[in-house]
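Incident review: delayed structure delivery

Summary: a single-chain prediction request sat in the queue longer than the usual turnaround. Root cause was a stuck worker, restarted by the on-call engineer. No data loss occurred. The affected request and its eventual output are reproduced below so the record is complete for anyone auditing the incident later.

Affected input:
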Amino acid sequence: MEVLKRELYNAIVKGNVERALAAVNRLVESGVYPHELVLDVLVPAMRRVGELFETNEYSTADVIVCIEVFKALKRVKELLGVE
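Output delivered after worker restart:
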């Protein structure tokens, strides 16, 4: 389970929508609650993206890509009917 969470974290930080969605699907199928994913993975990943931006390691474009991944994952959560 932790390996999949790390995979999701890395996909978000790297802005890879396909890998992020695949990891979310596998995690949810494994019984992980979407709320847990938000607290344990999505929030820390976006925090890391912010840190990378603050240190000029990420450009505005990089941050926008990561935000788009985050938004795609939020839509998955909404489809599951989880607030």
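Verification: Residues 4 and 27 are 7 Å apart (CA to CA).
Action items: add queue-age alerting; document worker restart procedure.
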